[in-house]
Amino acid sequence: MTGFEWLLLRCARWLWPALAVAWALGLLWGLGSQHFAGAGWLLPLVLSALATHALARWADAVRERFIRESALPQALKRKLRETFPHLGARDAELAERALRQFFIATLRSRGQYTAVPTRAADVMWEVFAHHAQAYAAWCRTALGHVPDHSPVQVLGKKAHYNDGLRRTWYWACCDESIDPRHPSRLPLLFAIDAKLNIPDGLRYAARPPDR
Fold it and tell me: Is 103 exposed, middle or buried (0-12, 13-18, 19+ CB in 10 A)?
């Protein structure tokens, strides 16, 4: 990550508010001094909005790259293998990839709640959240905020959790170019418990069983 990208992430949440404030002040000054006669101010407004949008998209791309490539504490994979002793090193690596996909879904949800759908990912997320300082620093760079850990969820009567699961499903599918409405396979995050044969893990099906 370059120095400019690091600075961009620190300022990303303020890009649109700063643009709005700058233009509000500019309009007040212009109206008071009659510098905004006609529509000559429209082009600068459009250009500055496009530039702000481009910077915001750049910040999202930097965050996604950080989520996919940054080092996570080794304690996450160690705890996973302690919890499920049948897992090997490659299994733990695969589970870590699933956890990263969950954080990608959280980033793309822009602050809306996302529910973790599998036990393997949940175990690793819980351990990460317990390393409070490292977790907070990583999340501020990766997501722009620090989400509280929420235990693994299944579809039920609570709309909040159901919405969170559907949101996670949608973005996990998009991450692997899967049609969320007509999936040909499961994204890794939803398949990981079955792939690793996690005891009492959550199993999902890409399609309903034939009747």
Answer: buried
Q: And the tokens for 87?
A: 């897992």
Which portions of the chain are predicted below pLDDT 70? 1, 3-8, 10-53, 55, 208-211
Residue labelled with tokens 């090193």 = 89
**pTM (two decimals):** 0.80
Q: 12 phi and psi, to 5 degrees?
A: -60, -40
Phi-psi region of 144 (alpha: psi -120 to 50; beta: other; left: phi over 0): left
Contacts of 175 (CB under 8 A, 6+ apart): 101, 104, 105, 187
Could you tell me the maximum CA-CA distance found in the chain, to the nearest angstrom?
Answer: 75
How many Cβ atoms sit within 10 Å of the Cβ of residue 40?
10
Nearest to 193 by CA among 163, 152, 161, 157: 152
The H or E element that residue 48 is part of is helix 42-69
Q: How far is CA 97 from CA 103, 124, 132, in A?
A: 10, 11, 21
Strand, coil or helix: what is 150?
A: coil
> If we measure between CA atoms, which residue out of 72, 121, 119, 117 comes closest to residue 94?
121
Burial class (CB in 10 A: 0-12, 13-18, 19+), 92: buried
